[in-house]
Design a protein that fits this description.
single chain
């Protein structure tokens, strides 16, 4: 039974529920190479990790002079989905964690709705999270703007102050902070070893940094206890 009085736990998808970031980055690098731009993996992560498609295409246009027309996006999407069907895996321990979790939860991802549902279906997670799935396509501004997380909280009838966001990207952590939500940074995805990644995460001072998904329930419980203890003491 769900604890309707407890927090709303908001999961990002890529790099938090599914271990998709390395596949996505390789697909993007290949697509950019076909456009004549050779860009390294570390720079791709730094510029694009956690960003919406609209933001990615804007960066490509403004910073690299590459127009992402429909043909370009269709080719990239076809390549990505084909690789997902062959390679995509859930984050280790996420299924069991969701099964044990009694708090309300939802998904708020920068990806398009079709991609989110495909990812969750391939990895066997869709039934644990449907229908509470929200995409950056539903709001005016993607991460690091707070719009998506605030939209998810509103749709779930949750106070932003009573939400905990599970994120893996600097853009997502910034968005959660700007939404007034607690942020748990998950650093257990395959991309966590990219140079500079952990330093960028820690520089944003999330409330919690963790790298094993089965630890999440204990960490949420501890966060709630610490918050209750702080509230019971009141101002000095």
């Amino acid at each position: 039974m769900l604890d309707t009085a407890g927090p709303l736990v908001i999961f990002d998808c890529d790099g938090v529920l599914v271990d998709s970031e390395p596949v996505s980055v390789r697909v993007l690098m290949d697509a950019l190479r076909r456009k004549g731009l050779a860009i390294g993996e570390e720079e791709v992560y730094r510029r694009f990790l956690g960003r919406s498609l609209a933001t990615v295409t804007r960066i490509m246009r403004d910073e690299f002079g590459i127009e992402a027309d429909e043909s370009f996006l269709d080719d990239m999407r076809h390549d990505l989905y084909a690789r997902f069907r062959k390679e995509l895996r859930p984050i280790p321990g996420i299924g069991e964690t969701l099964d044990r979790m009694t708090w309300r939860r939802c998904v708020a991802s920068s990806s398009q709705p079709e991609r989110i549902r495909l990812s969750l279906t391939i990895t066997g997670l869709i039934d644990r999270l449907e229908p509470d799935i929200f995409s950056a396509a539903m709001v005016a501004r993607g991460k690091p703007a707070p719009d998506l997380f605030l939209h998810a909280a509103n749709e779930m009838n949750a106070d932003p102050a009573n939400c905990i966001v599970i994120e893996d990207s600097p853009a997502g952590i910034e968005a959660a902070h700007r939404a007034g939500m607690a942020t748990f940074a998950f650093t257990g995805g395959s991309h966590a070893g990219v140079p500079g990644y952990r330093e960028r995460i820690e520089a944003l001072a999330p409330e919690v940094v963790f790298d094993a998904m089965p630890d999440l329930i204990h960490l949420v419980q501890k966060h709630l206890e610490d918050r209750r203890d702080a509230g019971s003491k009141g101002p000095r």
